[in-house]
Write a structure and sequence with these properties.
Among the domains are: 91 residues; 234 residues, Rossmann fold (3-Layer(aba) Sandwich). 48% of the residues lie in helices and 14% in strands. The chain contains 17 helices and 15 strands. Strand 9, helix 12 and strand 10 form a beta-alpha-beta unit. Helix 8 crosses helix 9.
């Protein structure tokens, strides 16, 4: 009897959606494997699931693995070895684990916060899926829960303000689910994703909405408090939002004491009073955002966690999963208006050039062809009267070639994933030349012939750095240079900021006959950059009211034609020479 019982593994399943999914499958008689970082919720969830199994008189069982962070590869490998010895195989993997990540303007989150969020959402999904293949049945299924706050179609973007690492990771996660379907089809394994909209949960009510409201106030201001004090008070009091007045009174007094200790000129009673008023305002804004979102839903209701569990259960059905294999299924009902942000053409202005501008070119490519084209581009810039041209190349296998090619330029070869090293360069630029006017960042293109399911940890981590984390770091530091590093504490400085940041992302595949698997691999990291740029732009323009242009260029086209370098060079010059706000977002210049 036991050998025909199906087994499901659900990540991040001690609470919330993950536990709801586990409960749904427990009612269907599945063996349930749950895991998470904290033991206590897993013990409680295990008890609930065991009761469900007992009530249904099933022969199935529940196993939990505490202390397993899905971004910890070693922990996952050890867990799957134990699963193999206990169960032999599993039938379904549900990638659910996630965190809210930093809920703040992208300039104000640390690189480590950004990395951690991407690591849990994207790397956690990747390694759980790939290492799970060792125990997954040949007819098994990988179901990934992502979010509707990213692109549903590569030409339609949904920004999610204050959530840049989250949107970048989720965009890549959707495309990764599609890629896995193509790579695993010959093994009979199916990969699908579902994108729930807003879901009733403590995370959204007690974390995301209140933190977003606090960030709005930090940027917009609150009478009697500096931007720094707003942040400090919000950090101290948000965990107690919704608690009894007595608790708020006690905690607001503690916050006031800490603030006055560092600012003796302030009055403790006044700070406490302002703290309570700030918390009340945060709650008002959070509820307003929540209600406005509900108004965009046909029945004005968020999904329940059980609704999401039902969708996952539906996708696990043999016929349904076969029909939808490789698809990202929307599970939201939000009618979310978006601006048209995709362009194919740009009006080149030959009268504009990069005269008297401080130009920064940053490069992570590992392609000799691409780096030689970049050399041609910077050589053309050198012919005009720039204020300064600075080139930063990433330490990699092309270091010797880079050092030789750019020896006659102001060039540094360094680890562009090292936050301190990058900040040091920008500090030097700011002190010598006041600010960067235009930044061109070349990510390079990865090898689409390499199977994702065969990538080793070093290769995967390097791709995460080169196509997500480094572009973010360069973008963030460029924005702070254009606005002033002091804008971190004084958001009003963003209002007078202007400049141009152009990210040149991975190219589309080249060739006469391009297979579906090649196209799917190519989209994974393009799929991270699109929502990242869209969200960062919304923050720059709609929240900070800056005139900084952030643009993503994606070369190549669906026909598989080679990228047109001359068109790229002219486009970059035009974009880099802009003096006014253009609201450029994403250009497919070869389409």
């Amino acid at each position: 009897m036991n050998d025909i019982i199906k087994t499901i593994l659900v990540t991040g399943s001690g609470t919330g959606i993950g536990q709801a999914v586990a409960r749904k499958f427990a009612k269907a008689g599945y063996n349930i494997i749950i895991l998470g970082r904290r033991k206590e919720p897993l013990v409680e969830a295990s008890s609930i699931l065991s009761e469900i199994i007992a009530e249904g008189k099933f022969s199935s069982k529940v196993t939990y693995f505490p202390g397993v962070d899905v971004s910890d590869l070693d922990a996952l490998v050890a867990m799957f070895e134990k699963i193999k010895s206990e169960f032999g195989h599993i039938d379904i993997i549900v990638n659910n684990a996630g965190v809210s990540g930093p809920v703040k303007i992208f300039t104000n989150s640390s690189l480590q916060e950004f990395r951690d969020c991407v690591s849990i959402h994207l790397s956690g999904t990747f390694w759980t899926s790939v290492k799970g293949l060792d125990v997954l049945e040949k007819s098994g299924k990988i179901i990934t829960i992502s979010t509707f706050f990213t692109e549903e179609n590569k030409f339609e973007q949904r920004p999610y303000r204050f959530r840049t690492p989250y949107t970048a990771a989720q965009g890549a996660k959707n495309r990764l689910s599609e890629c896995l379907a193509w790579e695993l089809v010959e093994q009979g394994i199916q990969s699908l994703a579902t994108n729930p909209g807003p879901v009733h949960s403590d995370r959204i009510y007690k974390t995301v909405y209140p933190k977003a409201a606090a960030e709005f106030l930090r940027i917009g201001g609150f009478p009697g408090l500096t931007n720094r004090l707003i942040e400090e008070i919000a950090t101290g009091l948000l965990p107690y939002l919704g608690d009894d007045n007595a608790i708020i009174e006690t905690q607001s007094r503690e916050v006031a004491k800490r603030i006055v200790k560092g600012n003796p000129d302030l009055n403790e009673d006044e700070i406490q009073d302002l703290s309570k008023k700030l918390l009340q305002k945060i709650q008002e804004i959070a509820e307003k955002v929540q209600n406005n979102t509900k108004k965009m839903i046909v029945d004005n209701e968020f999904l329940s966690q059980d609704d999401v569990a039902q969708m996952v259960f539906n996708l696990s059905d043999e016929k349904t999963s076969r029909l939808l294999n490789g698809k990202v299924i929307p599970n939201d009902r939000v009618f979310y208006p978006v601006k048209p942000i995709i362009e194919r053409k740009i009006n080149h202005d030959s009268t504009k050039n990069l005269d008297n501008k401080v130009i920064l070119v940053t490069v992570t490519t590992t392609s000799q062809k691409e780096i030689k084209e970049i050399f041609e581009f910077v050589s053309s810039i050198k012919k005009v009267n720039t204020k300064q041209l600075i080139i930063l190349t990433h330490k990699n296998e092309l270091t010797d070639i880079s050092n030789d090619l750019f020896k006659d330029f102001h060039h540094h070869n360094l680890d562009l994933s090292n936050e301190d090293a990058v900040k040091k360069v920008f500090n030097t630029i700011n002190s010598r030349y006041e600010k960067v006017d235009s930044t061109f960042h070349f990510t390079g293109t990865y090898d689409y012939e390499n199977e994702f399911t065969s990538l080793d940890p070093d290769k995967w981590n390097r791709m995460i750095e080169e196509f997500i984390n480094i572009p973010h770091l360069i973008t963030r530091e460029s924005v702070l240079s254009m606005a002033s590093p002091e804008a971190l504490d004084n958001p009003d400085l963003f209002k007078t900021a202007k400049g141009n940041i152009i990210i040149i992302g991975p190219q589309a595949p080249i060739g006469k006959k391009i297979s579906g698997v090649i196209r799917a691999r190519a989209e994974v990291f393009r799929g991270a950059l699109r929502p990242y740029v869209t969200t960062a732009n919304q923050e720059l323009h709609d929240v900070l009211n800056s005139n900084i242009n952030l643009t993503l260029i994606l070369q190549g086209n669906v026909n598989g034609d080679p990228a047109n370098f001359e068109k790229l060079r002219d486009t970059l010059t035009t974009l880099g020479a802009q003096e006014e706000f253009k609201n450029n977002l994403i250009y497919h210049i070869d389409e």
